[in-house]
Amino acid sequence: MLKDAEFLRLWDVYGPLLTARQREIADLYFNYDLSLGEIAEEKGVSRQSVSDCLHKCRAQLRAYEEKLGFSKALEEVSLDFSRCLTRVQNWIAAQRSEHPGWGAALDDLQDALESGAEPGIPDESGAAGDPAAGGTERGNGQGKE
Asked: In 3-state terms, the chain is what percent helix, strand and coil (to 5)?
């Protein structure tokens, strides 16, 4: 059987592909932490029926992953992104000491990394770097020293 953490990882990716009944029972079991007996009582079925349904959910999620591999690919992309983010944050730290005049631009870049917005480009609220929305336009990061 899949361990709970692995099940939940696959659930996040492939859960919508399960039947409505499978999703409902798995949701009660994993997200609401109900026991097999509690779910069986709520659904008016046997405990064995709930157990079988969860077993089928696990098998179906595993089959989707074996055929499609999206969960593994997503995990690899996430790891690659984390490594890139760490490298950029280290670069920003190095630039702060080498170029003190770049402080505002580096702050803008750091803020964008933390929020997921693009530096100097307004987000949906219009606030990320848009002077009209109360943000600050910091230019191209070259600063005036």
From this structure: 70, 0, 30
State pTM to two decimals: 0.54
CB 138 within 8 A of CB 110: no
Every domain of the chain and the residues it spans: 4-68, 79-133
3-state secondary structure of 33: coil
Q: What is the pLDDT of residues 65-100, one digit of tens each?
A: 999 888 887 787 777 788 888 888 889 889 988 988
Contact 109, 143 (CB under 8 A): no
For the stretch 9-23, pLDDT in tens is 899 989 999 999 999
Contacts of 130 (CB under 8 A, 6+ apart): 122, 137
Cβ neighbours, 10 Å, residue 107: 15
The second-level CATH assignment, the architecture, of 4-68 is: Orthogonal Bundle (1.10)
